[in-house]
TrEMBL record:
<feature type="transmembrane region" description="Helical">
    <location>
        <begin position="139"/>
        <end position="161"/>
    </location>
</feature>
<feature type="domain" description="Integral membrane bound transporter">
    <location>
        <begin position="403"/>
        <end position="529"/>
    </location>
</feature>
<comment type="similarity">
    <text>Belongs to the YccS/YhfK family.</text>
</comment>
<dbReference type="Pfam" id="PF13515">
    <property type="entry name" value="FUSC_2"/>
</dbReference>
<feature type="transmembrane region" description="Helical">
    <location>
        <begin position="443"/>
        <end position="460"/>
    </location>
</feature>
<feature type="transmembrane region" description="Helical">
    <location>
        <begin position="487"/>
        <end position="505"/>
    </location>
</feature>
<feature type="transmembrane region" description="Helical">
    <location>
        <begin position="418"/>
        <end position="436"/>
    </location>
</feature>
<protein>
    <submittedName>
        <fullName>Putative membrane protein</fullName>
    </submittedName>
</protein>
<feature type="transmembrane region" description="Helical">
    <location>
        <begin position="466"/>
        <end position="482"/>
    </location>
</feature>
<dbReference type="Pfam" id="PF12805">
    <property type="entry name" value="FUSC-like"/>
</dbReference>
<dbReference type="GO" id="GO:0005886">
    <property type="term" value="C:plasma membrane"/>
</dbReference>
<feature type="domain" description="Integral membrane protein YccS N-terminal">
    <location>
        <begin position="71"/>
        <end position="342"/>
    </location>
</feature>
<dbReference type="InterPro" id="IPR049453">
    <property type="entry name" value="Memb_transporter_dom"/>
</dbReference>
<feature type="transmembrane region" description="Helical">
    <location>
        <begin position="93"/>
        <end position="111"/>
    </location>
</feature>
<keyword id="KW-0472">Membrane</keyword>
<keyword id="KW-1133">Transmembrane helix</keyword>
<feature type="transmembrane region" description="Helical">
    <location>
        <begin position="68"/>
        <end position="87"/>
    </location>
</feature>
Length: 714
């Protein structure tokens, strides 16, 4: 998002992240303000602390998940505050509690992102409760106040969601559409001769990860909300129809893969390449307008392209053909772009139709099969109690590092808030090195910049009322950026912490600044050393398993595509599930490779081969989507034995790739090929040539993947 764009700024203010920021600020700040008027500011701070810790688990998702997460967080935060309040007078007992709690709560990660947030809230509660000043009066009373704050925030959040049940899903859908627009904009870059193809593939893979994550989140929110509210709200139906169409449009974008190097060689000297890039960008802009309209809860205006770019492209292609240039590839690109443009126009038209075209009840009912169901079995914990598990290694790493940080803070005089060392380690130390490194840099730079801002405010603004205004502004911005721009979150969070402590301890304004910076640097240094040298988790160690997982998903998707040749055997829901699985695993593979690029060069093993594997996998996914789209047409059928042979070779290449990686391909149903005589049909040579060409490209790509799998395995 460009924050210099007025539309983007407006959408940010009306979007889910700023809304969450305002809600968190209201939930955290209100108890402190109310109790300050009652003359008991410290009690208010304890309640506000509970609200903040529980708000960490209130991430985007269905109401049921958010409610469960916040209630679980209330319980674990209360337990953490109570136990730490009992033990914080004894350094020895705290030295036992810290590693135990760190290990146990870090293992929550095996249950997914929300469970990890619940564990993080409990650990932050432990770190903050290590301050004996907070529990000097009565530890049990302090723990109850923290629990009260958590319950207050839970009720506030759930009440807001009940008022407009679809608003959160609408905001998330808008963000999802913006990600699809970014994906299309990235594809447009291939049509510029100045763009490096390999680099752009890497960027495209990163955007694909974001698209899949957003679509998965929106799918779950829409389904759960619709199930809870019912079908009486037309806005829910509209959002569902838009989402289903956007998923199909994204698949069509994925299917539109071409040999861009060859494309440049053939047509790079003609203006048509620039015009295609411009046309694709125009469609991406319309998708962005749609996304912003959804976020802003506005009715979008009909697409208004500056010119009839499709007619211009068609005329240029016809002019080139008249000069003897073969334009088959350009015609394919044109047809695909025209189709995507028409589907985008259809979505805009939904807002102007008196009666919405409903999706089929069968397809809507099948949405439940696309929703993930998280198991909370203890078996998951037991299965991960091994050094082969990255979660287990991270839990051990976090436990030991926090213990070391605590012991250092006891030996070195760091002021009265030395627990900030442990707090910094908890916030920065991530399961992977690249995430820890990024957090480290952002935390240090954000603290320095935010600290400078905080010092200026404390020095130049003595008036407490003005300081409170700054406090509110910084809190809203810090909470708004917390999940999307960690650096900015730290920049705004640091001065608001300074202002809070200036209210609590007005006589020690600048001592707080010095302590905050020293503790942050020490905690960051320990986190960096631990992630690098103590049970480190390097991405290359898990790449082999992830590559096998992706190949298995590709094989399953291919089997579903081939079943299209037999209308009776084809299962639309099974096909879409296989497609979703393939996209998600491909996105995970791409994300892992991106993280590896942030690791030390000595740990980037087989970098070129792994990069080529990621690129070829992306190309294969596009070829599969193209093949699937072709088979929807009635005139594209199996017409020769040679085509059947190619299909079997593709399957065998994928199976051999899995064998190289030490995996055995799951039993998949390719039985449709056993009745070759009944499948082969007579068709014209053009359609025969199209299918043969597509299978040939897929076979070549699978052959290259098989060779790369052998290298990766070795």
């Amino acid at each position: 998002m460009s924050f210099f764009n007025p539309t983007a700024i407006k959408s940010f203010i009306l979007g889910q992240y700023f809304t969450d920021g305002v809600k968190m600020t209201l939930g955290v700040l209100l108890p402190a303000v109310i109790f300050s008027f009652l003359g008991d500011f410290r009690t208010g701070i304890s309640i506000s602390l509970g609200a903040f810790l529980v708000s960490i688990s209130d991430s985007t998702g269905p109401l049921e998940h958010r409610r469960t997460g916040m209630l679980a967080s209330c319980g674990f935060v209360f337990l953490s505050a109570l136990v730490t309040g009992v033990l914080n007078q004894s350094p020895v007992l705290l030295a036992i509690e810290i590693p135990v709690f760190c290990f146990v709560f870090a293992m929550f990660t095996v249950y997914g992102t929300r469970a990890a947030s619940v564990g993080a809230g409990a650990l932050l509660g432990m770190a903050i409760s290590m301050d004996p000043h907070k529990t000097a009066a009565a530890f049990w009373l302090y723990a109850l106040m923290v629990l009260a704050g958590g319950i207050w925030y839970t009720l506030l959040s759930l009440s807001i969601m009940q008022i407009r049940p679809y608003r959160v899903a609408q905001q998330a859908l808008g963000e999802s559409v913006l990600q699809v627009a970014a994906f299309l904009r990235q594809k447009a870059a291939f049509y510029s001769s100045e763009t490096d193809v390999e680099t752009n593939y890497r960027k495209l893979a990163a955007v694909q990860v974001a698209v899949n994550e957003h679509q998965d989140s929106v799918r779950e929110m829409l389904y759960k909300t619709r199930k809870r509210v019912g079908e009486s709200i037309s806005s829910g139906q509209l959002l569902l129809v838009i989402f289903v169409d956007m998923v199909d449009i994204f698949e069509q974008m994925m299917a539109s893969h071409y040999d861009y190097k060859k494309l440049r060689e053939l047509y790079g000297q003609y203006p048509v390449m620039h015009d295609f890039k411009r046309g694709i960008q125009l469609v991406a802009e319309e998708l962005s307008r749609l996304g912003y309209a959804l976020i802003n809860n506005e009715k979008p205006r009909h697409p208004h392209y500056p010119e009839d770019f499709l007619a211009g492209l068609r005329e240029q292609i016809e002019a080139l053909e008249q000069t003897g240039v073969k334009c088959l590839m350009l015609r394919k690109i044109y047809a695909n772009l025209a189709s995507i443009t028409a589907r985008v126009d259809d979505i805009y038209n939904y807002f102007y139709e008196d009666k919405l075209t409903f999706i089929s009840q069968t397809r809507e009912a099948s949405l439940s099969k696309f929703i993930g169901h998280q198991s909370f079995s203890l078996k998951l914990i037991r299965d991960n109690l091994t050094l082969e598990s990255n979660v287990f290694r991270h839990a051990l790493r976090l436990a030991v590092t926090c213990l070391v940080g605590y012991l250092i803070s006891l030996q070195v005089s760091l002021g009265s808030h030395s627990y900030w060392v442990v707090l910094t380690i908890l916030v920065i130390l991530r399961p992977g090195f690249s995430l820890t490194k990024r957090r480290n840099t952002q935390r240090i730079l954000g603290t320095l910049l935010g600290g400078f801002t905080g010092v200026l405010i404390l020095y130049l603004v003595p008036d407490f009322s003005l300081r409170f205004v700054f406090l509110v502004i910084f809190m809203v911005l810090a909470y708004s950026f917390l999940r999307i721009r960690y650096f900015l979150a730290v920049v705004f969070m640091t001065p608001f912490i300074f202002i809070v402590y200036a209210f609590l301890y007005p006589e020690s304004n600048f001592l707080i600044v010095r302590e905050r910076i020293i503790d942050t640097v020490l905690g960051s240094g320990l986190a960096y050393l631990a992630s690098n040298f103590f049970l480190p988790s390097w991405e290359y160690t898990g790449f082999r398993q992830m590559a096998a997982s992706v190949l298995q998903a590709n094989l399953e998707y291919f089997a579903q595509i081939i079943s299209r040749f037999d209308a009776k055997a084809f299962d639309e829901v099974a096909y879409r599930l296989a497609r979703k699985k393939m996209y998600l695993r491909s996105a995970s593979l791409s994300a892992a490779f991106q993280r590896m690029l942030d690791e030390p060069k000595s740990k980037q093993r087989n970098k070129q081969d792994l990069h080529q594997f990621v690129v070829l996998n992306h190309i294969l996914s596009s070829y599969f989507s193209t093949l699937s789209s072709s088979l929807v047409r009635a005139d594209v059928v199996l017409s020769s034995h040679g085509q059947v042979v190619k299909i079997k070779r593709i399957r065998n290449y994928l199976l051999r790739s899995l064998e190289h990686l030490g995996e055995k391909g799951e039993s998949l149903d390719f039985s449709v090929l056993d009745h070759e005589d009944g499948l082969l049909k007579i068709t014209d040579s053009a359609e025969t040539s199209l299918l043969t060409e597509q299978l040939q490209l897929i076979q070549k790509t699978c052959s290259d993947l098989e060779k790369l799998s052998r290298k990766v395995a070795s």
